[in-house]
Amino acid sequence: MTEEQDRDPLRAAAETMREVRERCVWSQQITHRDLVPYLIEESHEVIDAVESGTRADLREELGDLLWQVLFHAAIAAQDPDDPFDIDDVADTLTEKMVRRHPHVFSGEVATTPDEVLVHWNAAKAAEKRARRSVLDGVPRGMPALALAQKIVGRAAGAGVEVAGPSGGTATAPETEAELGDALLELVAVARAEGWDAERALRERLRGLEADVRDAESGA
């Protein structure tokens, strides 16, 4: 490790990962796909640290998550056809964030969070012109509840609204805590009936996605 790397913790971490990839027989065999379970686990450990851990826990778990990014970049750097390394990842990220913050870097004005979102969404839309549906780019590997919130938001953008409790007999929760209680009660019902709550929500989401695509196609 050079003196310059020793002064730059991120560069030192990237160099440590490179050496591990090249010299550790286990790491040498790992692919992007092999790393997916570890990426999911480390992401959830960061969430746990944010919600109920200490500052030391959060610092450690963020480091573990960063290691996953460095690991993927080290694997990508060895690709024979389309290699890229952590510097390429960082350059791409910087370019994107500068582009999506014109109120910071390009003289545009945003004095409220809503105005910031206008700039962000406009830049994002320009980047994704090749996409044919508002559902494109939604990662299907998300947990069902997080996926549902994402798809419901995208559906609203396509003019497809999901009926809330006011359309039925249920009472709408008035706080996030009450929402948690209501969701837990539904899971308890699923368990009592022998239903799979995760599968039930995913199957309903497939129907919602079909409705969105029908709306987009004019069907």
Keywords, separated by commas or semicolons:
219 residues; mainly alpha; Helix Hairpins; 3 domains; 11 helices; globular; MazG-like_dom
Brief account:
With 219 residues, this protein is mostly helical.
Structure description:
- InterPro entries: MazG-like_dom, NTP-PPase_MazG-like_N, NTP_PyrPHydrolase_MazG.
- This is XTP/dITP diphosphohydrolase.
- One of its GO terms (molecular function) is ITP diphosphatase activity.
- It is a single chain.
- With 219 residues, this protein is mainly α.
- It folds into three domains: 3-84, MazG-like (Helix Hairpins, Orthogonal Bundle); 86-130; 137-217, no CATH class.
- Helix content is 71%, strand content 0%.
- It is built from eleven helices and no strands.
- It has helices at 3-7, 9-23, 25-28, 32-52, 55-77, 86-100, 102-105, 113-127, 144-157, 176-193, 197-217.
- Helix 4 runs antiparallel to helix 5 and helix 9 packs parallel to helix 11 (197-217).
- The N and C termini lie far apart (61 Å).
- The mean pLDDT is 89.
